[in-house]
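Example 3.2
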Amino acid sequence: MTDTAKRRLLKFSTLSAITASLALVGCGKKEEPAPAPAPAAPATEAAPAPKPEPLKIAFAYIGPVGDGGWTYAHDNARKALEQEFGDKIVTSYVENVPEAADAERVIRDMVDQGNKLIFGTTFGYMEQMVKVAADHPEVKFEHATGYKQSENLRTYDSRTYEGAYMAGVIAGGMTKTNTLGVVGSVPIPEVLRNLNSFTLGAQSVNPKIKTKVVWVNAWFDTAKETEAAQSLINQGADVLFQNTDSSAVLQTAGKNNKYAFGWDSDMTAYSPEAHLASAVINWVPYYTKSVQEALDGSWKGGGHVWLGVKDGAIDLVSISEKVPAELKEKAEQAKAGLKDGSLVIWKGPIFNQAGKKVVEDGVAADDDFLRGINFYVKGVEGKLPGGN
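Structure, written as tokens:
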């Protein structure tokens, strides 16, 4: 075999070996697993539901928020609502709204500003609120001390006569002249109920009590209240009571070295030397209930709520150290009786000024009777305005 042939044979053998080797490698290769799919992108979280708009609430006040009495008590409750409900509500108020046609303009403006719950806080707003409520069924209306209701208008009140009675208990024991004086605002059943209850409370500890009344025909008028208080003192009254909204009566008593009571709010600071106690109203329980119902959808119109001592709405507070312990105890006993129901203030026999029995022996007057009182009880002197 020639060298050339040998070289050809060697080359062929080498190529064959390489081919065989490649074939073996190809037969032994393992199939790589398919790459894992890329993880899916995380699902986008649903956008949070929009936060509900706060409930807008407005208050119409008869007097200034700084009157120290009626309006001050309402505004303290409004502030308590803001603390209780936080950003769920927004409150506003208009003070010094007269009991006249202008009240309707103010209440309509409250509606236009988007308020959905509106409180009118005096008796004289009744007709205006009835009218506006009829025009705006989408708004909830609450009227203090009124008696007309509709599907979106309800009324509420506090049994202020219970506070008046407890004050009367103390007055009856503190007077030296047996003559009490009352500065009356407007001669409507609410006020007559209060001054009569004050007299009944005083007579419960001192049957000799006589009560004199001067009417000012206003809820808040410091000049008229001062003049009326001074007139009563000049007539021999040495303990004064009021159904007006300012502290003028208490201050006038202090200047004359006489005694008096705070009304609707604690008025101790206005004349500590004259102050015997304060018959106060706590509107927080009712306002909290009303707002909660408006928020959760359970609010219903057409009803009337009347809260007293047993509901935490009425109290006699800051009884002075000048009041003897035994007299203070009598007032505390009256409070306990009102709280547990064992004391009924308007239980017969009760006589009117002319001596006619208006509540029979052993009979407890119902709320319809109390809401319609239009007379003086026995012991109240003078002629009732508008009476016969």
